[in-house]
Design brief:
By secondary structure, the protein is mainly beta. Helices cover 13% and strands 38% of the residues. It contains five helices and 29 strands. The protein is elongated, with a radius of gyration of 62 Å.
């Protein structure tokens, strides 16, 4: 006879009670230090959960796993519930481990490990099942979008447990100002999450990649991403670039009309002073380029470039001014002539001093200018002096010394003439026979000569 699952479950439960009743007092006393140990488990939906119950000290007492509905899954190494997803991993007196494969959200709950001592001891392990969010989808984009229009993009994902997080990015730069909405699914276990991005289309957004990223703990740090490339149509923007910043007569110039737009404007229209180009032979249009050859003053004016696409039209202008040909003098270098003339004049120091000089004359055949260079005789004696002289100016030093010597000599001569004109003169009158006079008075009285006839004596001081 074949037993039904419910009858088999009651049979194992009865066996457990019999084992409890047959335990001796010594066994009850020794079981006071026994206690089962379990851990909570988190698993992704569709994955495999491993439930382990351990006992450090066990005197051959049975272990049992039961599900949240209190149905026995395993009693020691004996399988009690017919579920092909549940398998025995390890069974011993110290451990009972089982695995549940292909886990679903309905498997979530509290599982119990029982140690059949007196009394029965239990330990709880909570199994958490994570709902994996579906791949997100972006809606609300209609290509193309005109510049200035408002856009609303919505990113949506379902089936997440707990609710997933949605983030927006534009060219890898996160956008913060978004709306977020979370709704519970019909199974009352998972959630549907949506986020809306609202902005005004701009030409800078053309070609930009807008991405919606879903983050969830079940994705193992690998988010799910949906991308949308934006296509924005806008009127052309125009700019003229000149090949020359200083156009001169006789030269050529190329004006390039850079136009950007979506769709791309093609071709561009060139005009001058509000009309057509006056000289098509010299003014040639090639695509976006306008080439003007052999410039002259008649080419002065305002050149206009106009670009058009289905969205609109735009233009810009360039004022051309042709300048006269610049007269740039070629650089010249003075080279010493092989034949030079030297004139030397010697002057006495007492009168004046002079410096000999050499004149070198060269002619520039290209421009017809005559140049004369005056150099001292000392410099001509050294050919390298023309290239550059870094030492002291010997001619200047010699002139200074000559002046000093000349001034000194003049001073000596003037001093001598002055002393000659201011000489000292005095008369000495001596009385003849004064040597024999007893005193001075007698000498004067007996003097034979007078001051008139006295001999004049002169002394000169130089």
């Amino acid at each position: 006879m074949r037993l039904r699952p419910s009858a088999l479950l009651r049979f194992y439960s009865l066996c457990g009670l019999l084992i409890q009743a047959a335990a001796t007092k010594n066994k009850v006393k020794g079981s006071q230090g026994q206690f089962p140990l379990t851990q909570n488990v988190t698993v992704v939906e569709g994955g495999t959960a491993n439930l382990t119950c351990r006992v450090d000290q066990n005197d051959n007492t049975s272990l049992q796993w039961s599900n949240p509905a209190q149905q026995t899954l395993y009693f020691d190494d004996k399988k009690a519930l017919r579920d092909n997803r549940i398998e025995l991993v390890r069974a011993s007196w110290h451990e009972l481990s089982i695995s549940v494969s292909d886990v679903s959200l309905s498997d979530e709950g509290q599982y119990t490990c029982s140690l059949f001592t007196m009394p029965v001891k239990t330990s709880k392990a909570f199994l958490t099942v994570l709902g994996v969010p579906e791949k997100p989808q972006i809606s609300g984009f209609a290509s193309p979008v005109m510049e200035g229009e408002r856009m609303q993009l919505t990113c949506k994902t379902s089936g997440s447990k707990p609710a997933a997080d949605i983030r927006w990015f534009k060219n890898d730069r996160e956008i913060k100002d978004v709306k977020y909405l979370k709704e519970e699914d019909a199974n009352r276990r998972t959630f549907t999450v949506s986020s809306t991005l609202d902005f005004r289309a701009d030409r800078s957004d053309d070609g930009a990649v807008v991405s919606c990223r879903v983050d969830h703990e079940s994705l193992n740090s690998t988010p799910q991403i949906a991308r949308q490339i934006l296509e924005i149509h806008y009127t052309p923007s125009v700019k003229i670039i000149s090949s020359s910043s200083w156009p001169e007569e006789g030269q050529s110039i190329v004006l390039t009309c850079e136009s950007k737009g979506k769709p791309l404007p093609e071709p561009v229209l060139w005009t001058k002073d509000g009309g057509e180009l006056p000289d098509p032979e010299r003014m040639v249009v090639n695509g976006r380029d306008l080439r003007i050859s052999f410039l002259n003053k008649t080419d002065n004016g305002t050149y206009r470039c106009e670009a058009t696409n289905p969205i609109g039209q735009n233009s810009t202008e360039y004022v051309l001014i042709v300048h006269d040909v610049s007269n740039t003098l070629l650089p010249t270098t003075v080279i010493p002539s092989l034949t030079t003339a030297t004139v030397t004049t010697t002057v006495a120091l007492t009168t004046s001093t002079a410096t000999s000089a050499t004149a070198i004359s060269t002619r520039d055949g290209a421009l017809g200018h005559r140049k004369t260079v005056i150099m001292s005789t000392l410099e001509l004696e050294d050919p390298n002096a023309l290239a550059g002289q870094t030492g002291p100016d010997h001619a200047l030093i010699g002139g200074i010394v000559a002046v000093v010597v000349f001034v000194t000599l003049c001073s000596i001569i003037l001093l001598g003439r002055y002393l000659a004109r201011h000489k000292g003169t005095y008369l000495t009158n001596e009385a003849k026979g004064a040597e024999d006079a007893p005193d001075a008075d007698t000498a004067i009285i007996n003097a034979e000569g007078s001051q008139v006839n006295a001999e004049e004596k002169k002394e000169y001081f130089i």
